[in-house]
Amino acid sequence: MAPRILLIGGSPKHFRAAKAAGLEVVYCQFPDAFKPEYGPLVAGAVLADYTDWDTFRPLAEAAHRAWGFTAVVSLTEPGLDPAGRVRDLLGLGGPSYEVSHRFTDKYVMRRRLAEVADPDVPAIGAEVLTDRESLAAFGARHGYPFIVKPGAGTASFGVHRVDGPGDVDEVFAAITCQRDIADHPFLGQYDLDEYVMEEYVDGTLYSAEAFSFAGRHTVLAITEAVTLEGTVVHAGHAIPARLDTSAVAEVARMIPAFLDALGYADGPSHTEFKFSPRGPVVIESQNRVGGALINEMVRVVHGVDMQKLTMAWPHGGVAPITAAPPAAGAAASWLVVAEPGEILEIAGVDGVSADPATVGIDLGGAAPGDVVRSLDGSWDGLGHVAVRAADTTAAIEFSQAKVADIKVRTRAVEE
Questions:
Q1: What burial letters (b/e) apply to 132-147, b meaning 16+ CB within 10 Å?
Q2: Which of 10, 153, 222, 375 is the most exposed place for a label (fewest CB within 10 A)?
Q3: Pairing state between β 206-213 and 234-239
Q4: Which residues pair with 237 in a beta bridge?
Q5: Where, residue-wise, is CATH 3.30.470.20 in the chain?
């Protein structure tokens, strides 16, 4: 019998990655996200709210007795902490809950970096938002602009820039409204009670796609993000980032020091950073593979499938990678957006898919009848299209052109 993993969250692409690594999957998913066609792809399934530990704990124990999985994997943000809890409970290898939570809670990460005080990982000021006055006090202590964002979550949702004292009331009102949102499709997976205030770091956003092999960390690729003007939404991602060799070397020093500071020893990581006068500064990090088709781009540019690697590593099915394979060309993904409203038609996908330069299309199952929200975060786009090209600049331009070939027709929804 093939080794088995407990996969918390995820989708068929993760089943395929596990199968490619010679594994069987015991799948845990929210009941309303499980589809009948998943049944033949898995050895067993647990349908439950896996973010509720009191509910999930006895089910995880029962699943272990029934199916005998030997590792726990999650490549989706809400599943990372539950995966750590199950590893702790059953004595399985991999990141503990304590280590995982240093990634999933942004203030816990900041506090940990301040405690470790590693000069290779510059720390920035950060505090938890308590009330309107705490916003004003943070600006007085650390200066403007500064950033306020949810302590948990991803995809740029709920991120605010406070440019001066005059913005305090508006930002606090916006946060208060966000805490009351009940109909966003992803908010049930995240807690918006806690917001974190952080010093602002200017410049281009990058991310390091890394993998940790028993405490040895290898940066496999550096991704450059393209932010929509006037927003915090990262519409584009491109590999390799347009950085000189000295900047790449700085990242290669900083990322292992950062992962060591968080106590992370095994598995994938996606660490966002910007360059400051003190060197690269971590903005946030996730102990998973990055979204926006980053895995597909790392695979075509550097020849490493990070999802397959994540599945295979806990079972000794792969040797450690000691250095990133050289880049073969470039790749970029771009966010597909549409006017807010009900989707009437999505056209052009087949043509884009047929182009041999297309690396991947992920529209998240969007279909006529779905509702497009206003673009407040990457979540509110329909998904991404990734393409390959000779160099990074060409890849970014080509990804935008391919997205323009996809036509999404909507009609306004009456309030």
A1: eebbeebbeebebebb
A2: 375
A3: unpaired
A4: 225, 333
A5: 206-411
| Model pLDDT for residues 216-272, shown as the tens digit of each residue | 999 999 999 998 776 667 899 999 999 999 999 999 999 999 999 999 999 999 999
- pLDDT tens column, 331-364: 999 999 999 999 999 999 999 999 999 999 999 8
- Residue 343 burial (CB count, 10 A): 19
Residues of the chain above pLDDT 70, percent: 93
The CATH superfamily of 206-411 is ATP-grasp fold, B domain (3.30.470.20)
| Residue pair 195/175 in contact by the 8 Å Cβ criterion | yes
Host H or E run for residue 202: none
> At residue 333, what is the residue type?
S
For the stretch 267-316, pLDDT in tens is 999 999 999 888 899 999 999 999 999 999 999 999 999 999 999 999 98
Amino acid type, 47: L
138 residue type, one letter: F
The model carries a pTM of 0.93
Q: How, if at all, do strands 234-239 and 330-336 pair?
A: antiparallel
CATH architecture of 125-199: 2-Layer Sandwich (3.30)
**Average pLDDT of the chain to the nearest whole number:** 92
Return d(Cα 3, Cα 197) in angstroms, integer: 44
CATH 3.30.1490.20 in the chain: give the residue spans.
125-199
Backbone angles phi, psi at 220, to 5 degrees: -85, -30
CA distance 352 to 358: 7
Q: Provide the residue type at 64 as one letter.
A: H
Between the CA of residue 194 and those of 326, 334, 373, what are the distances in Å? Answer: 41, 30, 24
Its CATH architecture, for the domain 4-93, is 3-Layer(aba) Sandwich (3.40)
Bridge partners (DSSP) of residue 408 are 346
